[in-house]
Specification:
The complex is a heterodimer of chains A (about 180) and B (about 100). With about 180 residues, chain A is mainly alpha-helical. Chain A folds into two domains: about 100 residues, Orthogonal Bundle (Rna Polymerase Sigma Factor, Chain: A); about 50 residues, Orthogonal Bundle (Arc Repressor Mutant, subunit A), CATH 1.10.10. The longest helix of chain A has 25 residues. Chain A is globular and about 65 Å long. Chain B is about 90% helix and about 0% strand. The chains are: A mainly alpha (about 180), B mainly alpha (about 100). At the A-B interface, helix 2, helix 3, helix 5, helix 6 and helix 8 of A face helix 1 of B.
């Protein structure tokens, strides 16, 4: 099993060795979570993206003030603060009678879909590394099952059965 | 949940993953820029201490050597006492804020 450094170890590497890759690893763990939180508040994908970026940049610059709480929760709090400030600013802009150039709110946001995406995210995260890799190849890299079978040294039928089991496991996880 | 629903959810997740990667790339650009600036500042500080400080001290001593004979007594004392006091205050400050942790 591959070595997976803890958040604290990664933060120490960033602070002591100025290691940008350590911060990248740390960020990759929580970007989706922070983005989801920002999206729930702002209900606008562009603003949520901007807030997530700002939150991580701010977290990086204030990393020496981090006090061993959960890193993801800490960045989410930063993102929430930025989002609330942005919402206040937007509110003032909308109530300003002189300002008529107001953007309409994003109507594409779907709370239910967002929740399902988050639970899918959690379900995939709980899969064993090998199964996650198969999901990655099949759904995100569009690699045919035959090629996947060759890569993992199994028959195509085995992979089909394995895919079926993975899907069932994900469904069960999402429903629980 | 049907297989089709799960498939469409995976498609959505793929889009989200792309967006997340875009966010990560933007943040990392900013982080690397910050790091470059930090390194640059560190080197500038080092060069300043290694070369700037000796030059400043030499210039100051040379100026004292040239102008001291024409200076009034009080200004002479002040011109020597002031740099000494500055060095002592800076040293005291360093000691006060010193921490063995990096």
């Amino acid at each position: 099993m591959a070595f997976r450094p803890t958040d604290i170890e990664l933060i120490r590497e960033v602070l002591h060795d100025s290691d940008a890759r350590a911060f990248e690893t740390l960020m990759k763990r929580y970007t989706s979570q922070v983005y989801g939180a920002a999206l729930r508040l702002l209900k606008d994908e562009n603003n949520a993206q901007e807030v997530t970026q700002m939150a991580f940049i701010q977290a990086y610059r204030q990393l020496d003030s981090w006090r061993s709480e959960n890193f993801g929760a800490w960045v989410t709090i930063i993102a929430n603060h930025i989002a609330l400030r942005l919402m206040e600013k937007e509110k003032r802009r909308h109530t300003d009678p002189l300002n008529e150039n107001t953007d309409p709110p994003d109507e594409t946001y779907d709370e239910q879909k967002e929740q399902r995406l988050q639970s899918l995210e959690a379900a995939v995260a709980q899969l064993p590394e090998a199964d996650r890799q198969i999901i990655q190849w099949h759904y995100y890299e569009d690699i045919p099952l035959q090629t996947i079978a060759q890569r993992v040294g199994q028959t195509e039928n085995n992979i089909k059965v394995r895919m079926y089991r993975i899907r069932e496991r994900i469904k069960k996880q999402m429903q629980s | 949940m049907t297989d089709q629903e799960l498939d469409s959810l995976f498609t959505e997740r793929a889009k989200r993953q792309q967006l997340v990667e875009q966010i990560n790339a933007t943040v990392m650009r900013s982080v690397r820029r910050d790091l470059r600036l930090k390194t640059l500042r560190k080197w500038a500080k080092l060069l300043g201490i290694c070369f700037g400080l000796p030059v400043a001290v030499v210039v100051y001593i040379y100026a004292l050597f040239v102008f001291m004979p024409e200076m009034p007594e009080q200004l002479r004392v002040l011109s020597i006492a002031l740099p000494i006091a500055t060095i002592l205050i800076l040293a005291a400050q360093r000691l006060h804020y010193f921490s063995p942790e990096v």
